[in-house]
Every structure is written in structure tokens, then in C-alpha cells.
Amino acid sequence: MLLSSRPAIAAASAALVLLLAACSGGAPATDDADTDTPVAPTPAPDEATPPAKDSGNEGIAGDDAPAASIPARWHGDWAADEAGCREPDAHIQGLAISADALRFHESIAVPRSVETLDADSIRVESDYEGEGQQWTATQVLRLSNSDASLRVDGPDGASMTRVRCEPAAQ
Hints:
eight-stranded antiparallel barrel; 33% strand
């Protein structure tokens, strides 16, 4: 009888391992969550869009989504505070904006469309890629304080504020 129960035990163990893996949900929870950390928006299951087709070109925008350009006023390196500007490698809240991308700590966004809302605000719809996932999201980028501050408003009311880091002396 002991020999006949081994396959059943092995099957039950395998099922348990698969069940635990399916329920893990990804990154471990932390007690000191920073609600101002610039993690790019992740899609909810009902908001997820299919990933863009990979054309093999640089970036992640597909052939059906011509890349848009972010205006130069928004370009630069942004951090949560001055300390983040002084020591960018010590902080994960950084954001680098160029004409063709928003680069977060663990994701990159390639703009699909850029719409000017007013003199200091643009709406950017982007194809995101990060941590093995792809999605599309829209954010509003607002400049203030003589272009020294940036507020990024994302889906579901999420927002973050960043300060412009001075470019390094050359």
C-alpha cells in the first residue's frame, strides 16, 4: 500500500506547488510602502490592453503606433527631492524624460501620443514595458515653479511630484 500512495503524494505535492505559485501575486508586500515612489502604472486586469506588436525596431511601440515626441521643456532628470538628484544611484524614485521616452526605475514608456492641454501641461499616452509586462497608460505631466517641479498624474488619481535635477557640469 505504501508504494501505491507515492504517485498520489507526488501529484498532491505538485498541485500544491502550482497553487502557491499562482497565488503569489508577484512582489512581496512591504510595511514601509512609499506612495510617492514612481512606479509606472500597472494595468488592472479589466484595463489591460494587448501588447503592441514588436516590429524589431528600437523601443516598444508597434508599427500601428507611431511614436510621438515629448516637448523639450519636459526633458531632463527628475527626482523625489534634492538628495535624489545628488545621489541618483541611491534612490529608485528617479524619472528621466527625453523626446522619445519616460524612463522609470524598472520600466520604460514610449509615447504613442502627446497632447498639449495648456502652456504647462501635456497628456501623454505611452506603451510601457517593465518587469516582464507590457501595457498602455495615459499620464498628465504638469510643470510648475519655473519648470523646476513636475507633477505626474496617472490613472486612478495616482500622482507624484518630482524636482528637476540640474544637468551635470561638462
